[in-house]
Amino acid sequence: MEQTQTRKTGRPLSFDRQEALRQAMLTFWRHGYETTSVSDLTRAMGITAPSLYTAFGDKRRLFLESVQLYAQPPEALQAQLDAATSARAVARQMLTAAVHGFTGQGTPPGCLLASATASGSTEAAEVQAAVAAIRADILARLTRRFADLGTQSEALAGTLVALIQGLSVLARDGQSRQALLAITETVLPLFPEAGT
Asked: Which strand (E) or helix (H) includes residue 188?
């Protein structure tokens, strides 16, 4: 159904759209938005440029769809935040999941969202704004989750988002999963056991 809505013609696609999207996501993740060319994408996806434009629109729309594939749906994140028993439990869960995601064997190191932040063209600025909106939503959800911690809620939410971004950079620099998990254990005492 989704394929019909995003294609310009009624002809069936001659390739697996979901697998092509996954390959595009990995390519953007590895190289960033601006430095990834259409030819890089078509080579990784195993399709022609006309097929890319027919199935996904353009590079910007392909990237935004790749981000949707990569990012945890907001409802799933909210369910995890609601289920956590304390601010520290929230931090442990998010930091551990981030480290595992940033150091997966089948994916590039680091975070797709962080790799998309290179500055440049107007088109890149639009992509950056979309990625910033995702981070802003996460920050707002965390701030609400930590609301019973009073004036600390916003600072703790920002700290957690900053830590996740920092772990992404270290993963891209080649730090091991074990080293990153050790960092998360060091910072967890910043987050109270209270804060349900």
From this structure: none
